[in-house]
Amino acid sequence: MPSLNPIDLSAPLGKKNAAHFLRRTTFGPSRTDIDTFSGYNITQALAVVFEEKPAASPPLDLKTGAPWVNPKRTEANSEGNELMKMTFAWWLDLMMTSGNSIIDRMAWFFHTHFTTIGSRIESGEAIYYQLKLFRHYARGNFKELAKKYAMTMPC
Question: Residue 8, SS3?
Fold first, then answer.
């Protein structure tokens, strides 16, 4: 049964707690990640997952091999539905390669919290900018995200 006793913030997590922590804050931690985090205390572990990372490069259009978001897409780019699929593939790749960062785990939470009706959104651009907003606020203020989302998102 879980305890209500305070935890020692300076004690190492250990393998069990490190695995639990990483499953809640990242996607698919490796054994190496768990072994590394087992030696961290909770403060150190939080510092690692909340560490600032460089912004992700925009998704590429497989038809042109170039980003299609900025500059805006042209006639040479794939159709909208294909771009939406590429956007989700881009995000899945970020999830798999983000390492020990909480950014994409939080973006996933926001994506499920702020629902989007897929039948109304047929724009890869809208999904990309929604994900960019979620990733930007992943380490930030939820209230600010909610305001920004309400003011800018068409979905």
Answer: coil
> pLDDT for 112-149, tens place per residue?
888 766 666 667 778 888 899 999 999 999 999 999 98
- Is 43 in contact with 102 (CB distance < 8 Å)? no
Q: What is the pLDDT of residue 22?
A: 97
Whole-model pTM?
A: 0.80
Q: Is the peptide bond before 71 cis (omega within 30 degrees of 0)?
A: yes
How many distinct helices (H) and strands (E) make up the chain? 7, 0
CB of 108 within 8 A of CB of 95? yes
Nearest one of 148, 122, 123 to 135, comparing CA atoms? 148
Angle ∠(110,16,13) on CA atoms, nearest 5: 85
Q: How far apart are CA 21 and CA 38, in angstroms?
A: 10
Which tokens is 19 given?
């695995």
Paired strand residues for 60: 67
pLDDT, tens digit, 9 for 90 and up, residues 61-89: 877 887 877 666 666 566 667 888 888 89
Beta-carbon neighbour count of residue 58 at 10 Å? 15
